[in-house]
């Protein structure tokens, strides 16, 4: 069943109002009726006077891929936290940090944002810049050696994007990205299936102090 675009937009607007109201209540720390009404009124005024651009979403939530996305995110959090702890207490060599550019498969703002958020929430990596037009993320990696080198870090980010697409993208969007819903159908490594050439954003490697920049 496909919702009418107007109904979908109305539902998104209501969801945003509810979300902003919840944030207002959390900020004030007072879940009283007056606080809720004030937050809801302010949320309606803000969303009417400063509407956000509409985000195109042609897919839907797929339960099993979404569960796997959440499972792998928790695993990544645990592993990355252990790695950062190891780097903090390890004597000797300093971490070899780097900023790498990764050309994503999808050109959707929604999937780019979800991928960037998931990568930034994992300790040891943070998105420093995102190019919407070219779908390139520039990510600071705390230690590229622990990430398996520059290509290993890129692979991890493309794996995250692949899981996001399998969880939320439509079949047409998956096909355009060169992916299938089931990673077992991929010929080769699922995270690299349909991966775009990283030569799409070529910049010579340079060093800035202890950091390397590789795009």
Q: Would you tell me the structural class of the helices and strands? A: alpha+beta
Whole-number mean pLDDT: 80
H/E topology pattern: HHHEHEEHHEE
Strand content: 5-15%
Helix share, percent:
40-55%
Shape: globular
Rg, nearest Å: 20 Å
Terminal-residue CA separation:
42 Å
Largest sheet: 5 strands, mixed
Strand order, largest beta sheet: 2-3-1-5-4
Features:
about 220 residues; alpha+beta; five-stranded mixed β-sheet; about 50% helix; about 10% strand
How would you describe this protein?
By secondary structure, the chain is of the alpha+beta class. Helix content is 50%, strand content 12%. It has six helices and five strands; from the N terminus they run αααβαββααββ. It has helices at 5-28, 33-49, 63-89, 109-121, 149-168, 171-177; strands at 98-103, 125-131, 136-141, 206-208, 211-214. The protein has a five-stranded mixed beta sheet, with helices on one face. A hairpin with a 4-residue loop joins strand 2 (125-131) and strand 3. The chain is globular and about 55 Å long. The chain starts with a helix and ends with a strand. Mean pLDDT is 80; it is low at 187-192 and 200-215.
């Amino acid at each position: 069943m496909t919702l009418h675009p107007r109904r979908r937009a109305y539902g998104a607007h209501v969801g945003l109002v509810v979300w902003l109201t919840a944030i207002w209540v959390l900020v004030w720390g007072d879940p009283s009726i007056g606080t809720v009404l004030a937050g809801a009124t302010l949320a309606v005024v803000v969303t009417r006077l400063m509407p956000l651009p509409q985000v195109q979403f042609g897919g839907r939530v797929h339960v099993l891929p979404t569960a796997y996305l959440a499972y792998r995110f928790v695993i990544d959090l645990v592993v990355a936290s252990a790695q950062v702890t190891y780097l903090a207490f390890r004597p000797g060599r300093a971490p070899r940090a780097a900023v790498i550019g990764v050309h994503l498969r999808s050109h959707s703002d929604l999937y780019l944002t979800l991928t960037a958020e998931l990568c930034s929430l994992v300790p040891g990596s943070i998105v420093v810049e995102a190019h919407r037009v070219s779908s390139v993320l520039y990510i600071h990696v705390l230690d590229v050696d622990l990430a398996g080198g520059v290509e290993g870090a890129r692979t991890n980010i493309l794996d995250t994007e692949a899981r996001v697409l399998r969880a939320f993208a439509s079949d047409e969007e998956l096909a355009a990205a060169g992916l299938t819903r089931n990673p077992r159908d991929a010929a080769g490594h699922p995270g690299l299936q349909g991966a775009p050439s990283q030569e799409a954003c070529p910049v010579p490697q340079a060093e800035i102090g202890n950091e390397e920049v590789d795009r």
